[in-house]
Amino acid sequence: MGISENSETETPDARSRLVMSALRLFAEKGYKAASTRDICEAAGANISAIRYYFGDKAGLYRAAFTEPMGDTSCGSNVATYADLPLAEVLGRFFSEFLEPLKKGEELGLVMKLHYREMIEPTGAWQQEIDAEIKPQHEALASLLKQHLGLRRIDADLHRLVFAMIGMAVHFYVGQEIVSAISPQILSAPKAVDVLAERLAGYAVAMIAGEAARRAEGGIHEE
Prior knowledge:
With about 220 residues, the chain is an all-alpha fold. It has helices at about 15-30, 35-45, 50-55, 55-65, 85-100, 105-120, 125-150, 155-175, 175-180, 190-215. It is elongated.
């Protein structure tokens, strides 16, 4: 291919090209069927670049599975601005959570790869749950526990957190449905920002509703 053995270290974007090529091929073919040779050819990189940047094919797969979504630690960062008004905290949370929706085709490939991972599991989802999703959930649950003045995090608080995050998740897994019914909702970066603002407002209302339910004696602890 005309690329020297060590040229990857001299090409700043070689790593990103490998990640994007891997994302596309893993999404289209799956982990087993997508060869490292095909990925390197698509990226214009030497086969040794995978070992240099990622260690092995599994490391490249993990990078393709997680990195194109950007920083997904928004939920676990909630504690860093927990002193702000609740509506502002949630506004920041949803804004960061929905930021990848501005990526267009790239996000489509990420979702396709995530669906494929569910069918042909490699363990990447469990790693994502442990490293990102569970800490995100726990951070929001702790925030709401404090806001509602609860002694502990009970099952109803978990339900509330799942419901809040689920509102945002739907716009990832249901992109085609949203686009078919109301395409303007995800049509531009500004539209995604408005969506984040609205979801924060809905979440505040959900939290207020839960507070009222508990105040009326409708507590159902498990």
